[in-house]
Amino acid sequence: MIAELEQWIVEADIGSMQLAMDNGWLSSEQLTQTYMNRIQKYDGKLRSVLELNPDALDIARELDEERGKKGSRGRLHGIPILLKDNIATKDRMHTSAGALALANSFAAADAPLAGQLRLAGAVLLGKTNMTEWANFMASGMWSGYSARGGQTLNPYGAVDLFVGGSSSGSAAAVAANLAAAAIGTETDSSIIEPASQNMVVGIKPTVGLHSRTGIIPISHRQDTAGPIARTVTDAAILLGALTAIDTGDKAMLKGDRTPIRDYTPYLDATYLKQARIGVPRFYYRLLDEERLAIMEQAIAQLKHQGATIIDNVMLPCQNAEWDHNLLAIEFKQGVNDYLSTLPVTSDVSVRNLQDVITFNNNHAADALKYGQDVLEWSESMTLSVDDPAYLASAARTEELARERGIDYALKEHQLDALLLPAMHDEQDPAAKAGYPLITVPAGWSENGCSHPNGFSTRGPFGIAFAGTAYSEPTLIRLAYGFEQATKRRFPPDLD
C-alpha cells in the first residue's frame, strides 16, 4: 500500500484525493504522511519547505474521524496544503518571512486566510521557504534565498535553473509533488513568476478578494495572497475557499468587491471560442528567441481553439516611470505596524524596521549574505502613507495602471483579457492596479539566456492572462481552456 500510494500521489489532483478518501481507499493521515515522506526524501536538496507542522498528522487523524462520523466538509477536507512563511498561523509553526530576526517568532493568531483553510478542512502541512522579506531586503538577493532557509532550487534542473520569487518554495514544492497545493503571496510577480518557472498554475487575485491580515506586508495597495497548484482546477478550488470577508482588511470593504465561494463552474474549456484576447507586444520586447517562440505558439493555439486575437495592443502607461518610493514608504509603515503587534518574548527582540536592520548588522555573517540595502532604503523614507505627496503619487500610479493601462486596453478593443509572458517586469500594470493574473504552463526553453543574478532562464515557461478587477472567473475560463488544449505540464524527475 505504501509503495502504491507513493507512486499514485505524483500528479494526483484534489478531486482524485477526495474520491479516494470518500471511497475508503485513502485516509488524510496516509496522504499527509506520504507527503511528509516525500519532503524528507527530496527536499534536503530543494529547500522548498522551511518546516513541517508538528501537529499535521494529528489534524489529519481528527479530520478522518470527522469524515467518518459527519461526512466531508467539502473539496479541501483532509487535503495537505503548504503556506508561505510570511502567513501567520497560531500553531507550533513559526512565521518569519525567512528572516533570522523572526526565526523564533510564533504568531498569536491565525491569519484569517489560514483560518479559512482550517475551516474548509485543509491540513496545514508546513511553511515554505521564500525570498527573504518577500524580496524587499537586498537588490542583489537571489530569488528563493532566505537566511533562515537557504537557497530554494528549481526541481526541474541544475542549481543554475531560475526558481523565481518570492513565493519560490510554494511553487517548487507543488511542482515537486510535496503537497497537494500551496499558498503564495504577491506584491509584484511573486506568485506568477515562480509558478511559471516551476511549471505550475498560479493565481494572483484582485487586491481585496482575499484577506491580508496576519501576512507580513510590503504594500497595502498591491499585496495579496493566492493559490499555487498543478492544475487550473485545483487552483480554482483553493481560490474559492479563501474569499470570506475580513472586516479588518480595508481592501475587502470596497463596494465593487465581488467574492465567489466556488470558482469551479468557470472551468469551461469552450469559452475560448468566444474570447477576445489582446497581445500587448511592448511587454514581449525583452523575450529571448525561445520564449518568444513559446508565446507565439500559445497565440496560435488560442486561435486554433477559436479565440479572437487582437495583436499589438497598446497601453498608454507602457512607457510610464513608476514611483518606486511608494513601496519603500508602504513597507516601512506596514512592517513597523506588524512587528509592533508581535507577542513580547525573549526570543524575538525586533519591534520595528530599524530593529531588524540592527539585528542583521549584529549577525552579519549569517544574516547578510546579500546585504540589506533595500531595507535601509525603506527605513530612510520620511514620508508616511498619510502624507499628501504620497497620496498624490499613489493616485497617479493607480490611474496610470487602470484607466491608462489595463482598463483602457480592455475597453478600447472589447477584450476579455491581455496575454502576457509570465515574467517579472511584464506584470507591472497588473501589480500597480491591484488587478488579477493567472499563469499556466506553456512550454520549455531548452537553452534560455543568462539572468542578471547568475541563474539561467532555460526551463519551464508560462503564459499569463491579465484582466480587470474581480475578473477571476474569466481568467479561469481562459487558462482552463488553454490548459486542456495543450497539457504542457509534466512532473520533474527527482530521482
N/C terminus separation: 21 Å
Strand numbers in spatial order across the main sheet: 1-3-2-6-8-7-12-13-11-9-10
Give the low-pLDDT segments: none
- Give me the count of strands: 13
User: Count the helices. How many?
Assistant: 16
Q: Name the shape in a single word.
A: globular
Profile the largest sheet: 11 strands, mixed
Give the C-alpha Rg.
21 Å
Order of helices and strands: HHHEHEHEEEHEHEEHEHEHHHHHEHEEH
**Which percent band covers the strand fraction?**
5-15%
Task: Tell me what the structure shows.
The protein is of the alpha/beta class and 495 residues long. It has helices at 2-8, 14-22, 28-46, 56-70, 112-120, 168-175, 192-197, 232-240, 289-304, 325-340, 353-362, 364-367, 373-379, 388-412, 428-433, 472-486, and strands spanning 49-52, 80-84, 123-128, 145-146, 150-151, 181-186, 201-204, 224-229, 276-279, 308-311, 417-421, 437-445, 459-466. An 11-stranded mixed sheet has the order 1-3-2-6-8-7-12-13-11-9-10, with helices on both faces. The protein is globular.
Could you outline the blueprint of secondary structure elements for this entry?
Blueprint: H1 2-8, H2 14-22, H3 28-46, E1 49-52, H4 56-70, E2 80-84, H5 112-120, E3 123-128, E4 145-146, E5 150-151, H6 168-175, E6 181-186, H7 192-197, E7 201-204, E8 224-229, H8 232-240, E9 276-279, H9 289-304, E10 308-311, H10 325-340, H11 353-362, H12 364-367, H13 373-379, H14 388-412, E11 417-421, H15 428-433, E12 437-445, E13 459-466, H16 472-486
Parallel strand pairs: 2-3, 2-6, 9-10, 9-11
Antiparallel strand pairs: 1-3, 4-5, 6-8, 7-8, 7-12, 11-13, 12-13
